[in-house]
Amino acid sequence: MSALPPCPNCNSEYTYEDGLMLICPECAHEWSAAASAETVSDDKVIKDSVGNTLQDGDTITVIKDLKVKGSSLVVKVGTKVKGIRLVDGDHDIDCKIDGIGAMKLKSEFVRKV
């Protein structure tokens, strides 16, 4: 079998090379072989304040009082947050906190439960 990556569009395993491009015969999607090698190693690992790896759906605990920008609300130490989503950016956790609503948090201020 070939060591070519599957099609990013339809996940077909029957991709083939044509010069510098990879082509899927099932959906006719074309992409650069160099770009496909970069995306494999581009996975970013997000860790909490003590070094545990975070994943989508994890439950976390806030380890520091956090002021909510634009209001007088404060997220207190020990607040549990269930069902987080990891996103790209400076604030890498997207979540919903009871009594406050949707928020974005930095992973350095939370701990995995």
From TrEMBL:
Domain Protein YjdM C-terminal, first and last residues per copy: 46-113
A Pfam family this chain is assigned to: Zn_Ribbon_YjdM
InterPro entries xrefs: YjdM (IPR004624), YjdM_C (IPR013988), YjdM_N (IPR013987)
Domain Protein YjdM N-terminal residue range list: 4-32
Homology family: Belongs to the YjdM family.
Protein name stated in the entry: Protein YjdM
Species, as recorded: Pseudomonas taeanensis MS-3
